[in-house]
Amino acid sequence: MPTEKIAPKISPHQVVPDHHGEQNPQQKSLLLNAVKHGHQTFVHQRRVRVLAEALAAQIPPSSSVLDIGCGDGTIASLIAQQRPDLTIQGVEILPRPGCKIACRPFDGATLPFADNSVDLCLLIDVLHHTSDVRILLREVARSYILLKDHLSENALDHATLRFMDWVGNRPHGVTLTYNYQSRAQWNAHFAACNLAPATFSTNLPLYPAPFSALVGRNLHFIAFLQKASAR
């Protein structure tokens, strides 16, 4: 019931090693394939639909949009279907064959675009995969930012998010850093990057009942960020 991403998107100098116990390779492959199939069947389709709808509603008209860590481009392509006035492209550390939007490679820290070349950057479940949230956040602060990520206020939140991340991302080989932040920590990151949330909402019905009681419960947020001086 996870947060698959579509991941960062971590540059070589940000990577946190992901250590796992020894396991029979065949058993490991069967387990990961089963997890991937279950996630795709019961979670993924609803999640990407709800996310695309929530994000599309907040993007200003006729914007040029850059999806950072776009993965296979599914969410961005759904946004484009709902908002034909937008121009959307993506960047990925390792662009996937068959990506559903135009995608360019990047190093996980520096965007291959000049300032003012895009109106808005999407960061969808990307920053919690980095070892330092502020590196990429500061890089994209040149434009408006639509940020989807997590809130972790206690040990239960952290454990729940770790489980969700493993289910959603481990089968895809994504590096898992489990770098979740509290609301206070996010506010500190925003301030350090000269950003301020114009909107901040945890009303995201990503999962159906009864799963929402466990893996929903305000663990997810969308924030529309702009330069603090622009408020």
Summarize the structure in words.
There is one protein chain. This protein is of the alpha/beta class. The protein has a single domain, classed as Rossmann fold (3-Layer(aba) Sandwich). Helices cover 34% and strands 18% of the residues. It is built from six helices and seven strands, in the order H-E-H-E-E-E-H-E-H-H-E-H-E. The chain has a seven-stranded mixed beta sheet, with helices on both faces. Helix 1 packs parallel to helix 2. It is globular. The N terminus is likely disordered.
List keywords for this structure.
231 residues, alpha/beta, Rossmann fold, seven-stranded mixed β-sheet, 6 helices, globular, disordered N terminus
Brief sketch in words of this structure:
By secondary structure, this protein is an alpha/beta fold. The chain is built from 6 helices and 7 strands, in the order αβαβββαβααβαβ.
Mean pLDDT: 83
**In angstroms, what is the radius of gyration?**
17 Å
Distance N to C terminus: 36 Å
CATH fold-type name: Rossmann fold
Query: Considering the protein shown, what is the CATH homologous superfamily?
Result: Vaccinia Virus protein VP39
Total strand segments? 7
The percent of residues in helical segments reads 25-40%
Tell me the domain tally.
1
State the order of secondary-structure elements, H for helix, E for strand.
HEHEEEHEHHEHE
Per DSSP, the total helix count is 6
Describe the sheet with the most strands: 7 strands, mixed
Strand content: 15-25%
Q: What does the overall shape look like?
A: globular
Per CATH, the class reads Alpha Beta
Unreliably modeled segments = 1-22, 30-39
Strand numbers in spatial order across the main sheet: 3-2-1-4-5-7-6
Going by helix content, strand content and strand pairing, the class is alpha/beta
